[in-house]
Amino acid sequence: MSDVFISYARPAEAEARRIVEALRGQGYSVWRDDELPPHRAYAEVIEERLRASKAVIVLWTADAARSQWVRAEADLARGAGKLVQIALDGTTPPLPFNQIQCANLNGWAGQTDAAEWRKIADSIAELCAAAASDSAQSAAVNRPAPRPAAGLGHSGSVGRRAPRRSIVVLPFANRSGDPEQDYFVDGVTESLTTDLSRIHGSFVIARNTAFAFKGRDAKEVGEKLGVRYVLEGSVQRGGVRLRVNVQLIDAANGATLWADRFDKEISDIFEMQDEIVTRLARALDVQMVAAEARRAERTVDPDNVDALAALAQYDGLAIALAFTPDGGWASYDQAEKWAIRAVELVPGHALAHLALAQVHAFTDRVDQSLSEYERALQLDRNLAHAYAGFAASKLYGGRAEEAEADILRAFHLSPQDARAHLWCLIAGSAKLFHDEDAAAETWFRRGIEINRSYPIQVMYLAAALVGLGRLDEAEAMAREALTAAPRLSISLVRAIRRSTNPTYVKQLACVIEKLRVAGIPD
Question: Which residues are within 8 A (CB) of 108 and not within 5 positions of it... i.e. 6 or more apart?
Answer without folding.
Answer: 15, 18, 114, 116, 117
